[in-house]
Design a protein that fits this description.
CATH class of the largest domain: Alpha Beta
CATH superfamily of the largest domain: P-loop containing nucleotide triphosphate hydrolases
Pfam family, one: DUF2813
CATH topology of the largest domain: Rossmann fold
InterPro entries: Bact_Antivir_Def_Nuclease, DUF2813, P-loop_NTPase
Number of strands: 18
Radius of gyration: 21 Å
Order of helices and strands: EEEEHHEEEEEEHEHHHEEEHEHEHEEHH
CATH architecture of the largest domain: 3-Layer(aba) Sandwich
Protein name: DUF2813 domain-containing protein
Number of helices: 11
Distance between the termini: 30 Å
Shape: globular
Length: 357
C-alpha cells in the first residue's frame, strides 16, 4: 500500500528545495550523483514516523527526530545551512483507513497503544496534508494536518491508523555500521518473539536460500551473540552471524527487523552495500512481495538490473539532478523504460544529467 503519495522538502539536510513535490509509488529507487540529496530525502521521509513525539520507537530506542539528531551529530545539522527552519510537506494516502478500538498490549517491550477509536484527525477524501517544521534555534518540531496544529496524541493516532498491524510506521536503514550493531542487539533481545513467528527459519528457507552455497537452517542466540546452524554432509556447525560475511549478516538482521516490527514504509539507504547480485534479487523480490511501500537509494547498476529482473509492481526509478542553486529536479522512469535503456547498453546512472530537464 502507498502511504506517502508525495513529499516536498525545503531547507532540510542537504536539500535546499525541490522544484516540485516528489511523487512516490509503491516501489521507488532514488538514483543520482554523490551529494545529490538521496539520504536527505530518506531521512525526511523517516520523520513521518512520530516526529513530534518523544516516545521511544522500537529498535531505535528514541523518537525519529532524536535518532536523526544522533545520526547527524547536532540538531542544527538537520537544517540546510545549519540555521533557520526546515519545512516538509507530506501528502498521505488515507483511503480505506478505519478507526478501531484502543487496546493496551503488555509485551516484553512495555505498554503501547495498538489502535484508536476516537480521533480528531480529518480524513477528508482519502488524503491528508501533513506539514512538519524543524527549527534550528529552538531545536523543536511542529506538525500540522491541513493547517490544524497536531498534538503528540493526534500524531500518535495517525501513525497507528496508517499502520494498525505494525509496531512502527516506517523503518529507516542507513548505511551505518553502528545501525547494524543496533539491529544485532535488537534481534538478540527479541529472539523469543522472532522464533515464535518462525522468522529464525524463514530467513534462510524463504529469503536467503538461493543466494548462498552453504546450507543454513536457522538462527539462534548463544553467548550474547547470534549464531547460524550450518548443515554439512556428516556434521553440523554453529557459525557466528558476524562471521557469515557482511552481505548475509545485513540481510539476516534487516529481515528480522522488518518482519518482526512490520513497518508500512521501508527506507533503505545504499541497498547494494556488500550484496552480490543474487542477494539483491532476493532482497528486491522479498520487499516487493511484502506489500509495503519501499523507497531505496543506490549508486549501483546491479540494483537496476535486479529491479528489471524482479519486475515489482507500481515501481519507478527516480533520477535526481541538482542545479547550481541547490534546487533538485527529477525525472521518473518506469520499469519498461529502465529495461529498454539496459537492453541498449545504456547505463542510466551516466545519463542522469542529460535526461533530467
Amino acid at each position: 500500500m502507498v502511504i506517502v503519495k508525495s513529499i516536498d522538502i525545503e531547507d532540510f539536510r542537504g536539500v535546499r528545495r525541490l522544484k516540485e513535490p516528489l511523487e512516490l509509488g509503491k516501489f521507488n529507487i532514488l538514483l543520482g550523483r554523490n551529494c545529490i540529496g538521496k539520504s536527505s530525502i530518506l531521512q525526511a521521509l523517516f520523520l513521518v514516523n512520530l516526529p513530534c513525539d518523544e516516545v521511544q520507537l522500537p529498535l531505535y530506542t528514541m523518537s525519529s527526530k532524536s535518532y536523526l539528531k544522533a545520526l547527524s551529530g547536532k540538531w542544527n545539522y538537520l537544517i540546510y545551512g545549519y540555521s533557520g527552519d526546515a519545512h516538509l510537506t507530506f501528502k498521505l494516502q488515507t483511503k480505506g483507513l478505519r478507526k478501531a478500538v484502543v487496546t493496551k498490549n503488555f509485551s516484553t517491550q512495555g505498554e503501547f497503544s495498538s489502535a484508536s477509536e476516537e480521533t480528531l484527525l480529518k480524513l477528508g477524501k482519502g488524503e491528508l496534508n501533513l506539514k512538519i517544521f524543524l527549527s534550528a534555534s529552538t531545536e523543536s518540531v511542529n506538525c500540522k494536518i491541513d493547517e490544524e496544529n497536531l498534538t503528540q496524541e493526534k500524531l500518535r493516532e495517525l501513525a497507528i491508523m496508517l499502520n494498525p498491524e505494525g509496531q512502527l510506521l516506517g523503518i529507516y536503514i542507513p548505511n551505518d555500521t553502528n545501525f547494524y550493531k543496533l539491529l544485532h542487539e535488537y534481534a538478540y533481545k527479541n529472539m523469543d518473539g522472532i522464533t515464535k513467528r518462525g522468522l529464525h527459519v524463514k530467513v534462510f528457507q524463504e529469503f536467503l536460500r538461493e543466494t548462498i552455497s552453504d546450507k543454513f537452517t536457522e538462527v539462534f542466540p548463544r553467548e550474547n551473540e547470534l549464531y547460524a546452524r550450518k548443515e554439512l554432509k556428516d556434521t553440523v556447525l554453529y557459525i557466528r552471524l558476524n562471521d557469515l560475511g557482511e552481505g548475509v549478516k545485513r540481510g539476516v538482521l534487516t529481515f528480522f527487523a522488518i518482519e518482526y516490527l512490520n513497518p508500512a514504509i521501508i527506507l533503505w539507504d545504499d541497498i547494494e552495500v556488500a550484496a552480490h547480485p543474487s542477494l539483491l534479487d532476493a532482497t528486491i523480490k522479498w520487499l516487493t512481495e511484502s506489500e509495503r511501500q519501499v523507497v531505496l537509494s543506490t549508486h549501483s547498476v546491479d540494483v537496476l538490473e535486479s529491479f528489471v529482473r524482479v519486475e515489482p509492481r507500481d515501481a519507478k526509478v527516480i533520477m535526481l539532478k541538482k542545479d547550481k542553486e541547490d534546487i533538485i529536479t527529477y525525472k521518473s522512469l518506469t520499469l519498461d523504460e529502465v529495461e529498454d535503456l539496459l537492453d541498449k547498453g545504456i547505463d542510466p546512472r551516466k545519463i542522469v544529467e542529460g535526461t533530467v530537464p
